[in-house]
Amino acid sequence: MPRYTPEVAVRVLKDNPDIPYENKAYFEAVRDGTLFQYYRDQIQRYRDEYSDEIPQALASRLVNGEETLTQYKCQMTYVIGLCLTLRGAIEDGTIVNRDIQECVFRFLESDLSFQVGDPQNEGRITRINQILDIVLTELTMPR
């Protein structure tokens, strides 16, 4: 059961014409009954549109140059967005398999803090990719 009803989503969209795109897309999915597709698309984007590379300077500290055009999985904004999306998918009833939920909860509790030169950074990227693959497999199974 989603966190919001379609009626609430309609009201939110009506009362907030300048709602940020990410929030608008979410409430449109609630309204339209397409949360499953919404979360699948979000998780797919987190997997495919961000680089696994770890730049010499952490991406959050990059100010100039071509590296700022690349979106990295090691960026804190990426990690926070991914964690919120995974938690939301569970809370909205999109991820219902208890084993997958447990995998997500273990992932959310793991150390996801990237530091320059930290030898564990590659392991963090591996964990991110593993949870993305696990969740995408779950979200592409027929319902």
Explained architecture:
The protein is mainly alpha-helical and 143 residues long. It has one domain (33-139). Helix content is 58%, strand content 0%. The protein is built from six helices and no strands. α3 runs antiparallel to α4. The protein is globular. The model has no long low-confidence stretch (mean pLDDT 90).
Shape: globular
Beta-strand content estimate: under 5%
- Spell the H/E element sequence: HHHHHH
Our Rg estimate from Cα atoms comes to: 17 Å
Question: DSSP helix count?
Answer: 6
Question: Which descriptors would you attach to this protein?
Answer:
single chain; 143 residues; mainly alpha; 58% helix; 0% strand
Explain briefly what this protein structure is.
With 143 residues, the protein is mainly α. It has helices at residues 6-15, 21-32, 35-48, 76-91, 98-109, 121-139.
Topology summary:
Blueprint: H1 6-15, H2 21-32, H3 35-48, H4 76-91, H5 98-109, H6 121-139
